[in-house]
Predict the structure.
Amino acid sequence: MTGPAIVTGASSGIGEATARTLAAAGHPVALGARRVERCEAIAAEITAAGGAAVGLPLDLAVAGSVSDFAAAAESALGPIDVLVSNAGETQLGTGVDVPPDVFARLLEVNLLGAHRLVSLVAPAMIERARGDIVFVSTDAVEQPRPRMASYVAAKAGLEGLARTMQMELEGSGVRVSIVRPGHTLTEMGSRWDPGVVKNFMGELKRWGLMRHRGLLRPDDVARVIVHVVSMPRGAHITAIDVQPEAPVKKPEGGA
């Protein structure tokens, strides 16, 4: 299937890499993010390389922005066959000290906004008996990370939504999948205070959540996502974990 696709959080990282990889596979792509100028620049590069893409503004915390994005994407590309719900936001804070308004915003972006977009796009997929919805989650759902309470809670809710939809949509022609990356080299957390990051890394090591220094590249995750939606009909990848490979150790005594 190489029908139109939409990717949220497409201005950088996994979202950008996924949009580029989908376009290279023949999908017209709508890229959505708050940094619309970045989405437009990526879309222009995709188009110049022979693909089809459009960059559109999207703020998942604003209901009107989500509905405008969905309408604009379909107007530009036609009926949507693939939805990659990738946009995510996090802020370090324990379950006790994270301000309730920050907790609420992270739920809005990571869970409620994702559901809002699905509610707008999925009905037409069901009517056509064709479509793929991919939720990009995190390995922190299965191995929670300290100081990320709001992010873990939101992503756990997202996986609950996905699992339930898999049952509800079975036999409809619409496949719902979860892609769960481990530590990935993206811009997420790049603006955190260095002192806070140092304490956070110490907590990860304390709980055995940082076994090595390997990191996934966004392109690695993008290839997995495109593989999921490219599966022939009759096969359904319900969930897939992607972890960074540890740096290869040199044999003892080797050069």
